[in-house]
Amino acid sequence: NLGAIIATFERAVSFYASLVNINAYHQPGVEAGKKAAGAFLNVLAAVRSHLAGCSKSVTADEVAAATGAEPEEAWFCLVHLWANDGRVTKVAGATPAADCFAWQARA
Hints:
The protein is mainly alpha-helical.
């Protein structure tokens, strides 16, 4: 019964899409999301690599200048690393641009 309900829903979506002249099975947003995620992962890898090689605390602006990323994008990458990697520390500044991040090697 559940399979019949799902199949009916799929047919209804397909039929409605044909009525309003839309290809329900073409999803350019999904492809765009995959490309955006790939680009973000490349920037994240560059930011991680730069931060791991630094011997001092750095700001997002400094990381952006070194990696070629946008400062806001670098800040989001740094915050992501800080939240998900125990080796990254953060000292909050007066503004997000003044936040300092550092890499600490594991003992």
